Fold this protein.
Amino acid sequence: MKLILLGAPGAGKGTVAKLLTKVDGSVQISTGDILRGAVTAGTDLGKEAKGFMDAGDLVPDELIMNIMGERLLEDDCKAGFLLDGFPRTIPQADALEVLLEKIGVELDMVVNLDVPRDVIYDRLTTRRTCENTDCQAIYNVKSMPSKVEGVCDKCGSATIQRADETVEAISKRLDTYDEMTAPLADYYDKKGKLFTVAATSSDKVVEEVTNNL
Ligand code: AP5
């Protein structure tokens, strides 16, 4: 499948994407995971992105398009891809359209994960993420705890709170989402690609998405 997962921070894009990879081998491409990996590795990209990310701001479109322009050409994308956290602005969506047209790929749908704000705050303050940048498994101390507290089930690394999970950064990320990313719902609705789903249960989202492909 070839999907975009749209939704506010904490809506469950990463969780749903990981479940969908198991359906048909489509690959999850998370710009957030790629950027966090670059920050940990201390690359030029990471150094440039870190300040924006920690403050809850978006990384400049040009940096993101450089990453995605290369990533979508990699071989594993031929099996399908789940875009998690990209595009996030109208210019990114326009650039993606040009890119997909160039490589002759059509999106199946844009899944808009709809979750109430109070649920989002609760999820983000209780999320834990595997610190291993090759894993980045997602847990939640309330709804999806790891078997051993603080230890990733998949790779045994520590599970941590992300640098952008302070109250200030969460608030900024939600404002940035409303201003820059939420308009993409209308953008894709006009193209007949939008599929909005109440995302209180991730398994239900997966079921609804696969039934509507
Ligand atoms: P990114 O990593 O994309 O962060 P985000 O959009 O803020 O999304 P999150 O990862 O916080 O949440 P999610 O929706 O994936 O939720 P999750 O599945 O973890 O981006 C980080 C930063 O990178 C940005 O702020 C920006 O600076 C930069 N960036 C990235 N892409 C960019 C782009 N394209 N352009 C510019 N800048 C970019 O779930 C959250 C929690 O809830 C977890 O604990 C999970 O276990 C739990 N949960 C999930 N579903 C359920 C459920 N159904 N029931 C109960 N709990 C659930």
User: Anything to note?
Assistant: The first helix runs from residue 13 to 24. The mean pLDDT is 96. The two ends are 8 Å apart (CA to CA). The CA atoms of residues 39 and 46 lie 4 Å apart.
